[in-house]
């Protein structure tokens, strides 16, 4: 739709009126010459030539004037369009001229293109900063498998600068096998800048109507090493706390006993004091030994040796091992699973021991049962005890709420369950007071 108000009202725009008027003015000298001939008759030959030359010169001058009036606004319009084509959106035309409607549309187009460029530049800067901040290596390939974009992490992985990498084919930089391999795989690979375990992800892209590929490489080895470092720090804090507490007590008692024995004369009850101090030192050393033995048991768990076993036979056998009270077993259908029988039995014994110790003070009962749920086999132990303690650290190694507890029972259960690709959970019972311990294993 035209934007000129004159055209919308049925009038000719200013530029068209100017062209039409100029066309009449170009014909005006010839018309005047014809009027002269009609009014005075045909003059002599010399006067006819003079009249023709005058008409020709006047027509040429008016045509030149009309040419400038028509071409110069078009030059302005062409200059604005060329600026837009070259990406210069800062030029503007005067909207009050003869091409006011067209200039208005071009100025509006320039404003819109300039705004879109600013938005595109802001988005590009944000994308660039995001890619630069990523630890993952990002590669973008075009339809010819040539590299078109990479971030600083990708440059470090390839140990190549940006200029030497862009435009290279995937096989030239050693990434063709990763693009052709399965998606979301974790492999061990050696890149020029780093080697280790990497997660490989790739997906198709579309750019300018052509296909491309996005390749993302995550260094999972670095994440695992960071988790391992944090685990060692937590372990050293726990070990340091326990060992320092024990050694401080032993050191203090040893100093006290040394002072007691060095007295002259000896006190009458020095034997009893010495014997009591040595007993305390022995008890503290024995407790420290139990603590370190518990950690060794937790850290030295071997990989499970899986074989097929039936929970309908395993669960009642574990229940019969408990002598402090009778454990009820809910009958169920045979349910075969792939598991290490020794490790699974040890995990169930630990869960059952916690349920027994929670139910004995209240005279409650303990029930064991098994069932299948989807692709999982569930083993549940229900007790009538006081319920779960208010803590989120029940599965944290060496954390315990029981006097004299080692704090490795539940941690060992979770380690065994996760080694079997399963899990363990503790929750409050819905039907009565007490707790529900659930250990699940995959059926497939």
From TrEMBL:
The keyword Membrane applies. Keywords: ATP-binding, Kinase, Membrane, Nucleotide-binding, Transferase, Transmembrane, Transmembrane helix, Two-component regulatory system. It catalyses: ATP + protein L-histidine = ADP + protein N-phospho-L-histidine. It is an enzyme of class 2 (transferase). The chain crosses the membrane at residues 21-40, 46-63. The keyword Transmembrane helix applies. Residues 238-444 form the Histidine kinase domain. One of its GO terms (molecular function) is protein histidine kinase activity. This is histidine kinase. It comes from Rhodanobacter lindaniclasticus.
